Design the sequence.
């Protein structure tokens, strides 16, 4: 049995969850999210808790059982609390600043980079070397953070680049001084 798929989801009082046909709609104080649910997964709502049951024991259906439960749990968490991904910039002259809703990054290139967020994602700059990506969709927040990090990933010699907060960069020794 799927351990993730069997876990119930507690629905807060300010969140509404609706299932129409094959789509799940979750509305909360921060916004609204939708997700398409496979026909082999059956949702059941009882007294503020949501559980999912599966139609068969096929490998694909078992995988979809846990996946569906995880996505709906993320949606409930996203419309109540939201998701944040913190990033840090390390390097001499590397910095970040806000330009309206866009992010202006100086990463050692000959030109600054203007990064425009998609709908549902916003940036917040705490210091010139630390910023965060915020939104209600966990997948979209992670994807945007990965795209920003890809502009200048951390290199292993000096550690310069954009990294996630708390990310460990394995360092290399570089050239040896003599033989």
Sequence:
């Amino acid at each position: 049995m799927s351990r993730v798929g069997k876990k119930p989801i507690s629905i807060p009082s300010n969140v509404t969850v609706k299932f129409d046909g094959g789509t799940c709609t979750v509305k909360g104080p921060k916004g609204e999210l939708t997700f398409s649910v496979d026909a082999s997964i059956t949702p059941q709502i009882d007294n503020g808790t949501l559980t999912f049951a599966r139609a068969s024991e096929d490998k694909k259906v078992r995988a979809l059982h846990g996946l569906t439960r995880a996505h709906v749990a993320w949606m409930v968490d996203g419309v109540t609390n939201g998701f944040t991904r913190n990033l840090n910039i390390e390097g001499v002259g590397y910095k970040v600043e806000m330009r309206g809703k866009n992010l202006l990054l100086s990463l050692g290139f000959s030109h600054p980079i203007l990064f425009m967020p998609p709908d549902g994602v916003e940036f917040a700059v705490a210091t010139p070397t630390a910023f965060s990506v915020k939104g209600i969709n966990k997948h979209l927040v992670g994807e945007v953070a990965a795209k920003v990090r890809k502009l200048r990933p951390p290199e292993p010699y000096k550690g310069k680049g954009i990294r996630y907060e708390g990310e460990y960069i394995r360092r290399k020794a570089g050239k040896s001084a003599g033989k």
Q: What stands out?
A: Helices lie at 3-6, 59-80, 138-150.
